Each structure stands twice: as C-alpha cells, then as structure tokens.
C-alpha cells in the first residue's frame, strides 16, 4: 500500500514537471529580435477615401519619426522604458494624435488627459487620469511609478504631484487645436456623445462625425536586456463628461507588460476594453494557455472583444521580439521596427 502511494505521488510529480516544462517550452520559443518596438496612433473608421494624400503622408511621417526615436534608443542599448516614453512624447507633441497636444475636448470644452506605463521586469506601473496641465502625461505616469507609493493619481492631485516633481506644466490652452474643437462643436450640435473610434452598433454612432477624431497613442518596446515596457496616452473620447475615464490609464486594460509574456498597448472603445481586461487577458492567455502572441491577440480582439460589441485594437510584442498588430476596425495608425531596422508603417486594413 505504501509503495503504491509512493508510486502515485511520484507519478503526479513527474506529470507536473512535464506540464511545467511544456509550459516553459511554449514561452521559450525562438528569439526573433534582440530588441524591437511597435506603436499605434489610434484605431477607428480610418478609410482611404476619407484621408487626403497629404494627411496620410503626414501621419506616416510622424509614426516613422516617433518609432525611429525609440528604435535608436534601443539600438544604442537604452532601456525599453526610455524608448517607450520618448516615442510616445513625439506623438503627444503632435497635433495629429489624440494625446497631449491635439487631445479631444470634453463636454466642458477642456482637455483631460489619461496615460499609463508598465515595466515588464518589475511589474511596476504608473498611471494618471484626467490631468489638464501636464505637458507629457506619459512622463507623469512613469514618475508616479518611480517616485510615489501609488499606481494611479488623478486630476488636481496628479497636477500637484507633477509640479512637485519638476515636470513641465503648461497652460491648458497648450492642448487646444481647432480641429478637435470643431469636432466637439459638431457633436454638441447634434447632442451626441461620440467615441473616438468606429462603432457601427453604438447608440451614439453618427456617420457625419465618425471620422473626425482618432488617435490615442501607444508603444511597446523590448530592449537588449530582455525587458519589455508598454505605455499608452490619450485625451479619451470627444464630449466625455462627468470625469469619464477610459481604459488607457487602467493597467491590464489599456496597458500591460510582463517580461515572461508580452507587452500590450490598446486603443478603442475604452469601456469595452476595461470590461474585457484586454491587455492583461493577452498576457494571461500566453502565460496560462501557452498561446503565441498572435493567437492571444487575435482571440482577445477578434473573438472576445468583438462578441462583446467592443471596437478597437492593440499593438503587442512578446519576450522573443515577435510583434502583432490586431484590430477589428477599418484601420489603425501603426508602425513597427525590428532589430535590423526593418520598418512597417500602415494605416488601413491590408
Ligand atoms: N481608448 C480610449 C478611451 O476610451 C480612446 C481611444 O483609444 O480611441 O478613452
């Protein structure tokens, strides 16, 4: 009886070792890039017929400029954290995107900015919601991670913290752009609330205005030390009110990074991304189900999110430097660059 018991225990132990090693095996697929970087500038009903050649060229040029900044940092041995922050800052400073300068307007005609950052090595994270006068919300998210005991700060308190830490404070008018203000006026005139991306099923969907405002920005990078970092920055959705916060500053929804699996940055209809825990779900599927990055991003966006009625997409990168763009909208401003400097810049579905 005793021998039988020992045999059972030994068998169970060997079984657990095998499944453990299979798991490690799955997560230890071949390295394809020593370092790599992937970005998005928002997803939505981005159709060629609605974008002039000049606009298209301007978006592509800005995406290339941003990703090149991050890639250069990584190539020179810099950290994924630095690459993500500097890359996102290029897009925050561009009025083309709905982040930093060029952010969409709230119902009260202000710009309230959200951002988050996660470090895949330590699983540390920082996030900010609803700030109105900090020039670089992504920088503030990182500062909250490194210099406070908290993960998330919001509104006035976040601004005070930013000031105390010496971050650049700007007059709220810095974020103003005619284009976004016009969008708000159009939407208000129609007495609608509009999401900053496509959703044909949305109660507030409006064909006239749907193409006006895309552009949350995000970045995921893998550095030469195998560290993954991810960040996201946004103005949220046009005509938002009551202090509405989307997924972008929610760790696990808008942003997630874990060196064992992957890094993810999301863009889309935030409420659905929060409910679906999009970014963490992708990592969890890789960790617990040994799915590849492609399988996990496709399952979460094309299957789970879509079934729920959510729209948008993600950029993601795994620990071996595999990269994935996944979205269920007509387009997503996006770019990637591998260790050799091969650049992909795309807007529409292809
Ligand atoms: N996810 C953002 C939000 O809901 C908006 C977007 O990515 O377009 O605030």
Automatic annotation (TrEMBL):
<protein>
    <submittedName>
        <fullName>Isoaspartyl peptidase/L-asparaginase</fullName>
    </submittedName>
</protein>
<dbReference type="InterPro" id="IPR029055">
    <property type="entry name" value="Ntn_hydrolases_N"/>
</dbReference>
<dbReference type="Pfam" id="PF01112">
    <property type="entry name" value="Asparaginase_2"/>
</dbReference>
<dbReference type="InterPro" id="IPR000246">
    <property type="entry name" value="Peptidase_T2"/>
</dbReference>
